[in-house]
Amino acid sequence: MEKIIEVRGISKAYGKRKTKEKIHAVRDVSFDVNRGEVLGLLGPNGAGKTSTIKMLCGLLESDAGSITINGLDIYKKRLKALEHISAVLEGNRNLYWRLTVRENLEYFAGNRGYSRKQVAYQADKLLEQFNLKDKENELVNGLSRGMQQKLAIAVALLANTDVILLDEPTLGLDVEVSYELRNILNRIVKEEKRTIIISSHDMPVVQELCDRVIIINKGEVVIDDRVENLLRLFETRAYSIKLGEELSINQKNKLLSRFPLSTYKASSHETIVEVNLEHGQDIYELFDLLKEEGTMVESIDRITIDFEQVFMQIVKGGMTNEMATPIQC
User: Fold this and answer.
1) Which residue segment(s) compose the domain that 138 sits in?
2) Which 8-state DSSP code applies to residue 77?
């Protein structure tokens, strides 16, 4: 596939106030973004994801490494390179609040060199797609948070750049608006084949929209794989085991110690252990633990998991690409 962005060995460290000590936020991060794909760029708080995003957008210069966008080095040919990417950044004001909805679309398109006439048709289309047509003459500061976010994304799309970066596109939105925005983005992705980078803690957004995910943890890339592969991988590892009786305290402690991503649920009706096995032989260790006190097993089923569970297990379990190979059970 054709690469639109190439990131090679970027690093970033910040100096602590009043000391000479440095905090390494990003360490030797490398990845590619292919033209026409939707990439999820994920990571827990403090993992280095935000610094990586800012370097991609030219807002922060790396201490080492290189970033090229459409073949242009972002540090040597900054303005030319940034013509190929537009972004909606969380925590930034991406709109002019004293302009109307349509005026914002026209103003930011003008900054990219497009005349009002040139963008008129596409602006109308975007207003319809984002359900903003009846608000086009209203000032932005009078809109709801959800409408402002939809407009900010429409502005980014109207720039017609090769890459669109959406940082937490559904943050702070209520469930209904978040669902609406996911549907809108899903239609745009399928119809227009845009290259989009999405950073989000809203895992349904990632699961529904992204082809591939890169997960950064402790400043390093730990996973770079397709969403479908990761879901398939964890489906082969996640099991729900129904027991005929409760575990003893000793068994429970051993279970949670040996399998830290497991859960134990006991009630008057049933006892369920949900466990994620990292290696094929782990199943035998689990059965040995149950056999110690003659615990009866009534049923074993594989668990259908979603991407939020995948993400949490990767981050908490310290998984890397080298470890992400399916097991045989």
Assistant:
1) 96-159
2) S
